[in-house]
Amino acid sequence: MRGLRIGTLGIVLLHFITAGCGSSAKAVFIYHDLRCPGPLPDGGAADCVDVGDGASHVVCETDRDCPAQAPFCRILGLYSGGNYSCNQTIRVCRSLDHNDCPP
C-alpha cells in the first residue's frame, strides 16, 4: 500500500475486513502507537507510553476511498517507538481535513 510505512518498534495492527459478500476488502488501521522518550539522565531506559486512541480507521490513498462520516484521506503521524510524532506515517480516513505531518 502506497504511503504505508510502519516501524517495527511501534505497536500497529492492520486488519482486513469485508463489509459483505461480493464487496471489496478495506484495510483498517487500529491506532495503537508507542511514544518512547530518549534515555534518562542516569542512562536508564524511560517507560514507553501508548498514545494511540484504539480507534479503527480506514486506510486510504485518496478522499474517494473514504466514507461520508470521515471523508478526508489524511496523514496520521506515528511515534513508532520514538519520541517524534512523525517517525512514521499512515494515510487514513479522518473526519477533519488535517494532516499531522507534512506530505
Give your account of this protein's structure.
With 103 residues, this protein is an all-beta fold. Helices cover 0% and strands 32% of the residues. It is built from no helices and seven strands. It has a three-stranded antiparallel beta sheet with strand order 1-2-5, with no helix packed on it. The chain starts with 12 loop residues before the first strand and ends in a 9-residue tail after the last strand. Residues 1-23 have low confidence and may be disordered.
Features:
two-stranded antiparallel sheet, three-stranded antiparallel β-sheet, 7 strands, elongated, 0% helix, mainly beta, 103 residues
Rg on CA atoms, Å: 15 Å
Mean pLDDT value: 79
Biggest sheet details: 3 strands, antiparallel
| Helix/strand/pairing category | mainly beta
Distance linking N and C termini: 16 Å
Content of β-strand? 25-35%
Q: Biggest sheet, strands in spatial order?
A: 1-2-5
Helix content: under 10%
Number of domains: 1
Count all strands and give the number: 7
Q: Please provide the ordered H/E string of secondary-structure elements.
A: EEEEEEE
Q: In terms of topology, how is this protein built?
A:
Elements: E1 13-18, E2 25-30, E3 34-35, E4 49-50, E5 56-58, E6 72-78, E7 88-94
Antiparallel strand pairs: 1-2, 2-5, 3-4, 6-7
